[in-house]
TrEMBL record:
Gene3D superfamilies given in the database record: P-loop containing nucleotide triphosphate hydrolases
Keyword Secreted listed: no
Domain ABC transporter: 30-282
PANTHER family given in the database record: D,D-DIPEPTIDE TRANSPORT ATP-BINDING PROTEIN DDPF-RELATED, TRANSPORT ATP-BINDING PROTEIN
Family: Belongs to the ABC transporter superfamily.
Name of this chain's protein: ABC transporter ATP-binding protein
Molecular function terms from GO: ATP binding
SUPFAM superfamilies: P-loop containing nucleoside triphosphate hydrolases
Source organism: Kitasatospora phosalacinea
Matches recorded under InterPro entries: AAA+_ATPase, ABC_transp_ATP-bind, ABC_transporter-like_ATP-bd, ABC_transporter-like_CS, Oligopep_ABC_C, P-loop_NTPase
Entry keyword ATP-binding: yes
Length: 361
């Protein structure tokens, strides 16, 4: 119910009414606890038997606050995109909890799931394959209105689509063009317009600029920041480029082999990293100053990333970590604040021997 006792537009069930409530800025809008997504490994043709599982996401916990941007970084294959799909319910969670506005959404279906998907949208990585080449831009952006007709009545949809094109910096007259007539940056703007169509509160950006030129990346990032202030959006921003993540994010979470290994504000992570894996990532960031590059303490990791089907015991990073000891093989380190850390180093880190390292960047 709204403040005056009326049922919000389009909300017909108790779950939908709850999803329509406003969340104060700075309070959690998305709460993820111990989330698992395991893909079974089978053998046999007629009689299939499960012989293991790929642990793509294996016990991830975090909060996304109203109005903030949470950056997610990590190597390819660490589970970032799978995490995004599970949050959207595009992939069913194996176990764990995902709460939106305090309501469990990981096992929803039907009208309740439809209500959630109106409020949580996604911008995909590849602007070339995420748009249907047989549909015009107007049909692509207007398609969400067919699924949620309460957002825009039929007679108003063309005007609504043109307004969305204008909001993302495209000419409204492009409404009858096809995706192949646009550049990569323009196509990503179309994808963002589609994500905004239903006026969501949360947008999950799955590497939205990795396929774009550097100059176009800056334009899209600036657009996302502008839209966040204009529409009070909350972003989960997945990317490989640490400099882009620092520019746009309020907090940053670092993933390794299906786990969150460190999470904190952008200043805590970039200037006071305490987990060895985060420190190794930061040491690989290119430095434009030759003098600074000479005195830089570069961390070179040895060995390959272990298979998510057979991760190491204890700490998953121990097979590549210079701090590893016997305790790391026996005990799985919790994602928590270590007692001996001080100042901005006091943030969540999944390492038994968490501590700062100087001259990383």
């Amino acid at each position: 119910m709204t403040a005056n006792g009326a049922t919000p537009l389009g909300a017909t069930t108790p779950e939908e009414v709850a999803f329509a409530q406003d969340v104060p800025r700075g309070e959690p809008i998305l709460e993820v606890r111990d989330l698992l997504k395991h893909f079974p490994l089978t053998k046999g043709v007629l009689f299939k038997k499960q012989v293991g599982a790929v642990k793509a996401v294996d016990g991830v916990s975090f909060d996304l606050m109203q109005g903030e941007t949470l950056g997610i970084v990590g190597e390819s294959g660490c589970g970032k995109s799978t995490l995004a799909k599970v949050l959207m319910n595009l992939e069913p969670a194996t176990a764990g909890s995902v709460k939106y506005k305090g309501e469990e959404i990981s096992h929803l279906s039907g009208a309740a799931l439809k209500a959630v998907r109106r409020n949580i949208q996604m911008v995909f990585q590849d602007p070339y394959t995420s748009l249907n080449p047989r549909m015009t831009v107007g049909d692509i952006i207007g398609e969400p209105f067919e699924i949620h007709p309460e957002v825009a009545p039929k007679g108003d949809r063309r005007k609504a689509v043109q307004d969305l094109l204008d909001v993302v910096g495209l000419n409204p007259e492009y409404i009858n063009r096809y995706p192949h007539q646009f550049s990569g940056g323009q196509r990503q703007r179309i994808g963002i317009a589609r994500g905004l169509a239903l006026k969501p509160e949360v947008i999950i950006c799955d590497e939205p600029v990795s396929a774009l030129d550097v100059s176009v990346q800056a334009q899209v990032i600036n657009l996302l920041e502008q839209l966040q202030g204009e529409f009070n959006l909350s972003y989960m921003f997945i990317a490989h480029d640490l400099s882009i993540v620092r520019h746009i994010s309020d907090r940053v979470g670092v993933m390794y082999l299906g786990r969150m290994v460190e999470i904190g504000t952008d200043l805590e992570i970039y200037d006071h990293a305490t987990h060895p894996y985060t420190q190794a990532l930061l040491s690989a960031v290119p430095v434009p100053d030759p003098a600074a590059r000479e005195h830089r303490d570069r961390i070179v990791l040895t060995g390959d990333v272990p298979s998510p089907a057979n991760p190491p015991s204890g700490c998953r990073f121990r097979t590549r970590c210079w701090k590893a000891q016997e305790k790391c093989a026996r005990e799985d380190p919790a994602l928590t604040v270590r007692d001996w850390l001080e100042g901005r180093a006091r943030h969540d880190s999944a390492c038994h021997f968490a501590g700062e390292r100087d001259n990383l960047i």
